[in-house]
Amino acid sequence: MFKWKISYKVFVTAFVMLFVGMMFSSCGMFDKEVAEAIETESENLIVVGYSQLGSESVWRTANTNSIQTALSKENGFFLQFNNARQKQENQIKAIRSFISQRVDYIAFSPVTEDGWTTVLEEAKKAGIPVILVDRSISATDSSLYTTRVGTDSYWEGSQAGKWLEEDLKKKHQEEEEINIVVLQGTPGASVQLGRTMGFAEIAEKHSNWHILEQRNADFTTAKGKEVMEHFLRLYEDIDVLVSQNDDMTFGAIEALRESGREIGKDDDIRIISFDAGHDALMMVRDGIIDVDVECNPEQGETLAEVIRMLERGEKVEKEYIVEDKVFTKENVEKYLDGRTY
Ligand code: AHR
């Protein structure tokens, strides 16, 4: 019996070792095959590994399209595209795989600001330039990335605050008590932090502006609706909704409608949104959203141009800010037609 136990253990251990060994050798083969296939297919092309953070919003889809269109084979690029489905660990895994494939450039849109130092040090050690797209990171060592292409979310937040100041003045309400609720995007994301801070700094100047609550709604319509329902249950008198992207705004509008609140009337809740996608701009035209601060998703062309500059050995700036606009009922009409997202 004892003997059988030992030989049973030995048998199981040997089997596990054999299985693990087979797994490793087949992964190795797989990696090698993938690397070889990429090498043949990407001959004479610039190989870019891109980690997109997810597909949470209409904006993100437009941003992905812009990147895939600009970094096409016809334009001289071989794009390895990876969707991290909102998980930083997936982004880190993708970046490590780009490093082991020895791509020419790594680009990524960081889901949150923190937690990139180790993997970016690995990319630096491998001599692969890293380009941040859309969002930024909080690295103290700026040599960990070459450049960033994106928008200025602090500016976006302060534009929202400035619009509110102006609108209250225009309607002679600047002395009234103003109750504000804020739907925030992904916690720790640079856009969430920037927009929050930009708006808060203007709000602080007005002792009659009261931010009742700021709550995470993850940049999605479903969460936007859920959190707005929570606000409506808790606060009777909401004058302003600041929603950090259009998708959350759509959800919040649904919640407002279902609660019986009239929207789109002069004396009702003011709605401030961000992104300025086509459907949201239609709502600006119809007076449902009062102001929409753009976050321009068309960043692919600038990314491609920056890579071309690096290829030519030219010096690049540390940051390329893509231009944003502010849309209200007064100016929106002329931008609706050509809107691609
Ligand atoms: O990082 C850009 C933001 O992320 C956009 O405002 C939002 O819609 C997206 O999900």
Name a few traits of the molecule.
341 residues, alpha/beta, six-stranded parallel β-sheet, six-stranded mixed β-sheet, 11 helices, 12 strands, elongated, disordered N terminus, binds alpha-L-arabinofuranose
Computed over alpha carbons, the radius of gyration is: 25 Å
Number of DSSP E strands: 12
> Helix/strand/pairing class, anyone?
alpha/beta
If strands are numbered along the chain, what order do they take across the biggest sheet? 2-1-3-4-5-11
Please state roughly what percent of the residues sit in beta strands, choosing from under 5%, 5-15%, 15-25%, 25-35%, 35-45% or over 45%: 15-25%
First and last CA, distance: 72 Å
Characterize the main sheet.
6 strands, parallel
Which hetero compounds are present in the coordinates? alpha-L-arabinofuranose
Name the average pLDDT.
91
Overall morphology: elongated
Which runs of at least 5 residues are low in confidence (pLDDT < 50)? 1-27
Account of the 3D structure:
- The protein has 341 residues and is an alpha/beta fold.
- 46% of the residues lie in helices and 18% in strands.
- The protein is built from eleven helices and twelve strands.
- The protein has helices spanning 2-41, 58-70, 88-100, 117-125, 153-170, 190-203, 221-234, 246-258, 278-285, 300-311, 333-336, and strands at 46-52, 77-83, 105-108, 130-134, 147-150, 178-184, 209-216, 240-243, 270-275, 291-294, 319-321, 326-328.
- The strands form two sheets. A six-stranded parallel beta sheet has the order 2-1-3-4-5-11, sandwiched between helices. A six-stranded mixed beta sheet has the order 7-6-8-9-10-12, with helices on both faces.
- Helix 8 links the parallel strand 8 (240-243) and strand 9 (270-275).
- Helix 5 packs parallel to helix 6 (190-203) and helix 7 packs across helix 8 (246-258).
